Amino acid sequence: MTDRKEFRDLAPPEDAHEAIASLDLGGGTETVPLREARGRVLAERVDAELDVPGFDRASMDGYAVRARDTFGADEADPAELDLVGEVHAGAEPDVTVEEGTAAEISTGAVMPPGADSVVMVEKTDEAEGNDEVFVRTSLAPGDNVMLAGADVAAGERTLGPGTELTPREIGLLSALGIEEVPVRAKPRVGIVSTGDELVRPGGDLNSDAGQIYDVNSYTVATAVEEAGGEAVLYPHAGDDYEEMERILTEAAEECDLVLSSGSTSASAVDVIYRVIEERGDLLLHGVAVKPGKPMLIGRLDGGDSPSAYVGLPGYPVSALTIFRTFVAPAIREATGLPEPRTATVDGRMAVEERYGEGRRRLMPVGLVEDGAGPEGQRAGGGNAAGARGDTLVYPVDKGSGATTSLVEADGIVDVPPETEYLAAGESVEVQLFSPDVRPPSLYAVGEDDPALSRLLDRLDRPRYLSLGTREGLRRLRNGVPDAAVAAGDPEIAADHEVLGGWTREWGLVVPEGNPNDVSDVAALVDRDLRLINRGTDSGLRTALDDAVAALAEERDASRRELTDAIDGYELTVKAHESPARKVLAGEADAGLGLRATAAKLDLGFVSLGEQDVRVLANPDRTGKAGVEGLRTAVENVESVLADLPGYRPA
Amino acid sequence: MTDRKEFRDLAPPEDAHEAIASLDLGGGTETVPLREARGRVLAERVDAELDVPGFDRASMDGYAVRARDTFGADEADPAELDLVGEVHAGAEPDVTVEEGTAAEISTGAVMPPGADSVVMVEKTDEAEGNDEVFVRTSLAPGDNVMLAGADVAAGERTLGPGTELTPREIGLLSALGIEEVPVRAKPRVGIVSTGDELVRPGGDLNSDAGQIYDVNSYTVATAVEEAGGEAVLYPHAGDDYEEMERILTEAAEECDLVLSSGSTSASAVDVIYRVIEERGDLLLHGVAVKPGKPMLIGRLDGGDSPSAYVGLPGYPVSALTIFRTFVAPAIREATGLPEPRTATVDGRMAVEERYGEGRRRLMPVGLVEDGAGPEGQRAGGGNAAGARGDTLVYPVDKGSGATTSLVEADGIVDVPPETEYLAAGESVEVQLFSPDVRPPSLYAVGEDDPALSRLLDRLDRPRYLSLGTREGLRRLRNGVPDAAVAAGDPEIAADHEVLGGWTREWGLVVPEGNPNDVSDVAALVDRDLRLINRGTDSGLRTALDDAVAALAEERDASRRELTDAIDGYELTVKAHESPARKVLAGEADAGLGLRATAAKLDLGFVSLGEQDVRVLANPDRTGKAGVEGLRTAVENVESVLADLPGYRPA
After folding, report:
1. How buried is A261 (Cβ within 10 angstroms: 0-12 exposed, 13-18 middle, 19+ buried)?
2. A51 touches chain B (CB under 8 A)
């Protein structure tokens, strides 16, 4: 109920749009070379300063003649003209075409004085000796001649202000001889990420001191460029008031708009708030839209006129969502660029979604295209969300600022405050994060496996979420993904087609040379060895649990007695290499893992068995191109297995 | 019939696609800074080299505690813990959380040793003296903590080869600390325009020597960049064999693909042909598609391996059409970029089109959006092409290489060889010249007028063709344009709504100071003065003809007698300023024109009268936004008229 109270104090989203619209984002005029003007927007009308062509121009290879000399000529009775010279393109004519004469002329050449038309070479014959030409057709004045100014006449309006310059307009401006064009200036957008813990990508990271790489700076900077702005990165600002003030003021002096992001801790937000209040003008604090609560809008003193300021949320998906919804349209407006046509996609909810906060929600979602499987082909068949050729939409909301959400979500659905429930199959409009975003060709989930990782490299734009075998099968049963990957021997629904699979050797990854001489699961139970395990969704964990259960039966003990005796049995990590990496780092004596991983990391390995990995298809999607591509890749898995110790075809 | 014979020798279009596909366009791997990687395509899989986050991370502002110390705590019975210190984001913890203690922690900070969960600050109270904290809730281990590697674990597959890098992917790669990424190299495309007559925009032009500005170099270069290639411009090559060979060889040594264009004369084509034959390998010459007859495909020796070579037609629209159809897909394929989603638009033919050459035709077309006028709103009303909300498609084919066709056409319709007739209303698919192309908001035609030119500046993306009053009214009657502009007093169809208009003063533009003392039309008839006239479509011409007719009546002479007596009466030029500019250049004694033009060019003016200019709307389109914008602009025309001598409100 805390939230309900809070969002009543937040500004309506319309106020945020208005506040940003009231800011001045620059957008004057600058002059750029025509060669570099693609994608820019004309700031002024361009009138032609010259005629195009600048002279009466032959538009055929042939002979320049006086039309009246050819009157009545035809195949049977050609006109006979004296050849008095020739005119080439790019040269000034040095002949005059008098009555009864003709001059050879090439396409693009200047019409010689006296001539008013051109007969194409195919309608003529040259007499022997090249001193006469026979014209086998009658001409009218102007035939095959482009008069000076016929294409563009000097003084004509050619392009208006607001015209976006594509190769076509650049071609027309080339014809006018224009070297530089006046275009709308790109707003300069300063980007300040805040947080003492941030390190720019490529820098050295001290994880023990809580440092993390800065995600928002590059994400927001490239999103600014996509919207037509010029992004300028500033050094990270810590929570210190003087430092924050210095960096924000510097950015305000140099830029039209300053964007800050990254402050998730309350103290940093307080500091920024104080800087804007004291060195500028705070228009709005917090917007009644999830995730707009931490949003700030205002002005910052600096330079000749104040700079616009917007504070974005700290989590990457939230920052990109708020940028896309509130800031990008203002930048495009300033540059004169139209809203991109591909910014939205219509789809249907793949699952139901409940949300009771009573606040408008910009819900991050992923897309999957429903394909033409046997279910999909049945008229009206399948579930509500299963109509053929639909784009299905599923919420992606990990919270906690996961950066992987950036690539697992394709855009947002704008859910009104009063909507508490979206049914599966309900139509929604997805606002894509970028116009370039397109749904993945394949959406699959399940076990984490190095052979699978290599197979995915052969597919065109797949999306794969390593959620483990159990969660993969659960989602496949719900019908959202195209495919799932299962390790071990789980129960598989009858209608899930097995596209193929392979077998992998699993066991315990131990330090190089196996210094503790580990030989089996019993060693973990009986000796003081520290294990790193995998989570219960993982197929590897199931294999280990089965081995523990077998040992328990052998010893007539309970499974629980044995697992309680294993130090680290409950200590689970995320990915298939993670336990091995803990062993490599000296943090454990054994890690649940694969022979292939041990080999890759030059560690020792204690084999405990083999397990099958199977790739399963959603029956509604077996005709989908991405699924067919996966099938082909799995059928050709052998070439991938050769590089992976402990792998063999199923 | 000549054509019919010729195109039988031309290669089928499929062969051209195959020939280009057989060429090697480079497309290796290069490494670019992550900051500059937007729009590029990953060349290799990227696996995580580190855990994200790299440490167990607090995801709330609050207190780091041992969960078991809070078991059973609630509002009524809070747990009481000793406060032992604080941990900030970006700092290494210097405290350990022992049993019964807590440490203040900020979002993003490293969990201190001993703590396994975070209680949010809102669920706590600090005791006076700040040495104790009361926790009003029970926690489970892991609450409000993001474990190391929970977002991305070291060793995980994060992005696959072929992934296009948008801000989202750049964000994820930032989180991994990646500074540089391996991407597909952009093919280097050398551009060689041929023709002795070409001058690059910005250079000095000698029109007397038949020089013209080079249109294709910048058009093709920017189209190459749009397709994802890197364009390199080479100097123009003339028709000389040695020069052509030198430039093409240099381009082949430095580029993956060489594109030539511009040779419209047979001799230049012959020279290029010989260079490719002798210094390379000609795969194909001429494609059975209009306008592909002059197309060449081959290889050029140079560097370590031969360069690909494609010769484009010389006319700009043809060059862009052939580039777009045959070359751009190959460049995109080499860069790994997908075909743009907005490259096509569905529409209906606005007029019928007949074409009997029996050759596949890439027909340049313009687009106009049918709006919501009274006719459009009638269910099934209007003509076949007039259904509401349609995109109407009309052929644009000036031939003769007009550069204005570049901006008057929006794309092409690919018409199969066997199609001889497209009916009005027939559905067609338009392949846009660039994904950025969108139909104009307003498509209008008619009289050329400086007040109109300024009004158009106030509209968003209008297209206006200055074809004169007569042609403008004819096209409006055919129902294709949204609006027409008529000068003088022509007959106007009853259903064409007059949006408004103004009045302009017309007459004879003469040299400054009127040295010949011209005072009226009679001077042109009776004295030896040279006139420059406008064409019969022009409203100005109609006004002059009416004045001549009045004089003829006064003198009881025939109109023809008088016009025969005017030197230059038949000498017509294109635009409203053109006659005045001839006078300015000393090529005539008088030009038909406007007082406003005489004032602009500092010339003398002999007034012959005033005429109305009226703006008319297509009745099917009166609800269209672009037409409404035009109406508003015309209603506010007065502000524009103030700057134009001889103009006044109607």
Report:
1. buried
2. yes
Cβ-in-10-Å burial (0-12, 13-18, 19+) of B327 comes to: buried
Residues 6 or more apart in contact with residue A510 via CB below 8 angstroms? A516, A518, A583, A589, A590, A591, A598, A603, A604, A605, A606
- DSSP letters, A3-42, are HHHHHHTSBPHHHHHHHHHTS-----EEEEEGGG-TT-BB
Distance CA B552, CA B556 (A): 6
More confident residue, A304 or B392: B392
| Three-class DSSP category at A256 | coil
CB within 8 Å of A77: residues ≥ 6 apart:
none
Contact yes or no for A174 and B109 at CB 8 A: no
Q: How does pLDDT run across B66-92, given as a tens digit for each residue?
A: 999 999 999 999 999 999 999 998 899
Determine contact: A136 vs chain B, CB below 8 A.
no
ipTM of this complex = 0.91
Contacts of A451 (CB under 8 A, 6+ apart): A502, A504, A596, A613, A637, A640, A641, A644, A647
Answer whether B440's CB lies under 8 Å from B456's CB. no
User: Residue B132's beta-bridge partner residues?
Assistant: B82
Give the number of other Cβ atoms within 10 Å of residue A2's Cβ.
7
A531-534 vs B29-33, strand pairing mode: unpaired
First to last CA, chain A: 54
Q: What is the pLDDT of residue B562?
A: 96
Chain A residue closest in CA terms to B208? A92
- Is it the case that residue A303 has pLDDT exceeding 80? no
Q: How many CB atoms lie within 10 A of CB A628?
A: 16
For CA atoms B303, B306, B307, B309, give the dihedral sign: positive
Distance (Å, whole) CA A632 – CA A499: 9
* Residue B382: per-residue pLDDT: 37
What helix, strand, coil percent values describe chain A, rounded to 5? 30, 30, 40
How far is Cα B385 from Cα B383, in angstroms, rounded to an integer? 5
> What beta strand segments (E) does A88-197 contain?
101-105, 117-120, 124-126, 132-135, 145-146, 157-159, 180-184, 188-193
pLDDT for position B343: 79
Token pair for A436: 């370039």
Which residues of chain A neighbour B198 with C-beta distances below 8 Å?
90
Q: Does the beta-carbon distance from B153 to A578 stay under 8 Å?
A: yes
Q: What distances in angstroms separate CA B591 from CA A31, B339, B588, B604, one per listed residue?
A: 35, 52, 7, 10
Name the B residues in 71-110 with CB < 8 Å from any A CB.
87-92, 106-110
**Phi, psi values for residue A612, rounded to 5°:** -80, 145
| CA angle (B622 as vertex; B619, B628 as ends), nearest 5 | 150
d(CA B173, CA A215): 8
DSSP of B17-43: HHHHHTS-----EEEEEGGG-TT-BBS
Q: How far apart are the C-alpha atoms of B249 and B243, rounded to whole Å? A: 10
Average pLDDT rounded to a whole number, residues A539-566: 96
* Interchain CB distance below 8 Å, A155 and B575: yes
Distance of alpha carbon B641 from alpha carbon A433, whole angstroms: 46
Pairing between β-strand A117-120 and β-strand A57-58 as defined by DSSP bridges: unpaired
Separation CA A635–CA A638 (nearest Å)? 8
Q: What is the pLDDT of residues A133-174, one digit of tens each?
A: 999 999 999 999 999 999 999 999 999 999 999 999 999 999
Terminal-residue alpha carbon distance, chain B:
55
* Residue type (1 letter), A523: A
What is the crossing angle of helices A328-335 and A216-226, to 10°?
Answer: 40
A positions 478-507 inside 8 Å of B (CB)? none
| CB within 8 Å: A152 and B88 | no
Question: Distance (Å, rounded) from C-alpha A501 to C-alpha A650?
Answer: 6
Within 8 A of B343 by CB-CB distance, chain A residues are none
